[in-house]
Specification:
Largest sheet: 5 strands, mixed
Bound molecules: iron/sulfur cluster, FE2/S2 (inorganic) cluster
Shape: elongated
CATH architecture of the largest domain: 2-Layer Sandwich
Number of helices: 8
Strand content: 15-25%
Distance between the termini: 55 Å
Helix content: 10-25%
Structural class: alpha+beta
Order of helices and strands: EEHEEEHHEHEEHEEEEHEEHEHE
């Protein structure tokens, strides 16, 4: 008899369909049942490291991690109960006893990084615990230009190291030392630029507490920023990115959440960090037309387009369409490249259209 890959499970008394191989968290999330997480990232294999997502599974003596526990037919799961509430209260309080707090100058909100641990702590009545002395090593001499690590905000969820391994396949950072001295380190505590690190910044993006932050984004990042979704123009992949602007100035770039766009929450070093050029004083901000005096003069877009089309039409009238050639770029979007060939073929009647990726 062939065993079906789909079955039903019960979560908090409700019946949901599930597929073999899915985790409790995946089934719950798909059906709008909230389970808190910290070490979970949908791009990574489950690690079950933070214990924030523990749920009750019928027949199991211990609470089990929803992010890693695979569902089975007719499984009965409870995601909210007195026992789970007590577990969360103790766990979050213990995390905070080893975590820099607001009063001690913890994660400045101005960095724009969310601290998910603080958000979870707001849902419980914390137990006052003595602060734990945990002398975890940072990398004070790490003069890489982009990434800063603050061990006082690290909860050792290993999302950064797993991301570096499983998504980037770089392994530049790792969990090092033991016990209360466990930290996120590079080989020999070298600067990231002296390791295999590609400075993609994915570790910043996945870090749930702001222990990894961007050096480059202004420390006093304005809280009121406007977010604009756009396409990266550094290569032809078409990664989506969110531009954060304040007073019309670009202050930071982040990736849309995993699963939302084709780049699945990832960006490369150029997409994430190379945005200084946007406000460089040498950039042209308006079209220029070379007038009869031989000098370039500012013009409106309407004027510039008119002058360019008149010039190309003059060439076509005198020498024929094939005297014209159009060159586009792999850095443009596919829509822009389509429009360029349309301009070449339909408007000017030539197949002389080329793009750098075609070589
Ligand atoms: S920036 Fe990218 S390559 Fe470097 S440590 Fe972080 S995830 Fe790894
Ligand atoms: S630096 Fe951030 S992502 Fe890495 S282990 Fe610490 S808290 Fe987790
Ligand atoms: S999210 Fe499940 S153990 Fe961390």
């Amino acid at each position: 008899m062939i065993k079906s890959n789909s079955f039903t499970v019960e979560i908090n008394g409700q019946t949901y369909s599930a597929d073999a191989g899915e985790t409790v968290y995946e089934v719950a999330q798909r059906n709008g049942v909230e389970i808190p997480t910290l070490c979970h990232d949908p791009r990574l294999d489950p690690a079950g490291a933070c214990r924030v997502c523990l749920v009750e599974v019928e027949g199991q003596r211990r609470l089990q991690p929803g992010c890693a526990w695979k569902v089975d037919a007719d499984m009965k799961i409870q995601t909210e109960s007195d026992r789970i509430s007590r577990h969360r209260q103790v766990l979050y309080s213990m995390y905070m006893s080893d975590h820099r707090t607001d009063e001690e100058g913890g994660l400045p909100e101005e960095t724009g990084n969310v601290n998910q641990l603080r958000e979870l702590c707001a849902t419980i009545d914390p137990i006052p615990l003595e602060k734990v002395e945990a002398p975890r090593a940072a990398r004070p001499g790490d003069d890489n230009p982009y990434i800063e690590f603050d061990p006082e905000l690290c909860i050792l969820c290993a999302r950064c190291t797993r991301y570096c391994d499983e998504v980037e396949a770089v392994n530049a950072i790792t969990l090092a030392e033991r016990g209360s001295e466990t930290t996120i380190a590079t080989a020999g505590q070298r600067s990231l630029i002296d390791t295999s690190c590609e400075l993609c910044g994915g570790c910043i993006d996945t870090c749930p507490t702001g222990a990894l932050i961007e050096k480059k984004a202004p420390k006093l990042m304005p809280l009121e920023t406007k977010t604009t979704r756009t396409t990266c123009n550094f290569c032809g992949v078409g990664c989506q990115m969110d531009l954060h602007t304040h007073n019309n100035r670009l202050v930071k770039i982040t990736s849309p959440a995993p699963g939302e766009t084709l780049n699945d929450g990832n960006l490369c070093v150029k997409g994430r960090f190379a945005y200084d050029f946007v406000h460089h004083e040498d950039r042209l901000t308006e079209p220029l037309i070379r007038r009869e005096d031989g000098q370039l003069h500012p013009a409106t877009w309407d004027e510039a387009i008119k002058v360019a089309s008149e010039g190309m039409n003059r060439v076509k009238a005198k020498y024929g369409s094939d005297a014209l050639g159009f060159v586009s770029s792999s850095r443009c979007t596919i829509e822009e490249n389509y429009l360029m060939q349309k301009l070449s073929r339909a408007a000017f009647g030539t197949n002389n259209i080329h793009q750098c990726a075609a070589t």
